[in-house]
Amino acid sequence: MDDQTRMLASMGGLGGLSQADVGDPDSVRKQQSLGQPPQDIGDILQQIMAITDESLDEAQARKHALNCHRMKPALFSVLCEIKEKTVLSIRGVQEEDPPDPQIMRLDNMLLAEGVSGPEKGGGSAAAAAAAAAAGGSPNDGSIEHSDYRAKLAQIRQIYHSELEKYEQACSEFTNHVMNLLREQSRTRPISPKEIERMVAIIHRKFSSIQMQLKQSTCEAVMILRSRFLDARRKRRNFNKQATEVLNEYFYSHLSNPYPSEEAKEELAKKCAITVSQVSNWFGNKRIRYKKNIGKFQEEANLYAVKTAVDAANVSAQASQANSPATPNSG
DNA sequence: CCATATGATTCAGG
DNA sequence: CCTGAATCATATGG
């Protein structure tokens, strides 16, 4: 844009001058060929100064008269053509790559993360993707999810408001420049094509800002993801009672420690954890038990006794119906 | 601060 | 899709 602006600006200056001596278009050349430049320049200067003495109405009228001159359109197009040829080499260079690959990549990423997509659909899509491994139970991972969703919504909101600001500023600026150029096209050769080109240039410049916005949004989402969705960062041990329940099941089914889906659901409910957490726990337990049975022998005995005692208690309670004297383990 | 425990994730295989 | 195995990253106890 810089080169063009400079060029247009300088031609604007010329425009003022040519308007000044339009009364006798050949005067300059004639006098120059006569070989008395100082005098001629003084002449021109005088004419210019005379303009400032004119009233606004007079100047306006003169301008209007010029604009209505029958030769004006022809002259205008000729000037445009000349200008087109003169500046051709300058632009021509950067005319391609309309679909910026990088911005498309960022767009796709933001869409996938549910930042730029539709309000509810995108968000739940991301949530579904996150919970996909969990088997679809509605309460899976809901503890951290609300937090994650809230933060994501926050990013989303910032992104959209910034994008809106950006779009507004862009169109405002574009309109401004277009109006300016259109206005100036009355006094200097600016073809509609050129205005179009200028708009394209502006948009290209602005799109780098947009890319920056999208890039930083992407970054924020990625950080958020790694913080919240990688639960390894927030590992919390299950409470004692939960591990007890799980161990009980494990050691009482030691010959086949593979809980069915229903069993997993029940264990999950008892332990206030998710089904996938139960699966994880059993997966880890099996492999670690198998790896070093000796290390777990004590634990195995403990739970074997425990279940035996519990069974005894249960049977005792069952056989004794409703006797209040049944001893309970603290 | 280190070693160990532990929940979660990743990846290969059936 | 489920599992075993390896691995990661944190929690915990000494």
Automatic annotation (TrEMBL):
UniProt-recorded Gene Ontology molecular function terms: DNA-binding transcription factor activity, RNA polymerase II-specific; sequence-specific DNA binding
Gene Ontology biological process terms, A to Z: cell differentiation
Start-end of DNA-binding region: 231-293
Main location: nucleus
Subcellular location: Nucleus
Pfam families hit by this protein: Homeobox_KN, PBC
Residue ranges constituting the PBC domain according to the UniProt record: 36-230
Region (Disordered): 1-39
Organism listed in the record: Sinocyclocheilus rhinocerous
Gene3D superfamilies (UniProt xref): Homeodomain-like
GO CC annotation: nucleus; transcription regulator complex
InterPro entries the UniProt entry points to: HD (IPR001356), Homeobox_CS (IPR017970), Homeodomain-like_sf (IPR009057), KN_HD (IPR008422), PBX_PBC_dom (IPR005542), TALE_homeobox (IPR050224)
Annotated protein name in UniProt: Pre-B-cell leukemia transcription factor 1
Keywords: Activator, Developmental protein, Differentiation, DNA-binding, Homeobox, Nucleus, Transcription, Transcription regulation
Homology family: Belongs to the TALE/PBX homeobox family.
Domain of life of the native organism: Eukaryota
Domain Homeobox: 229-292
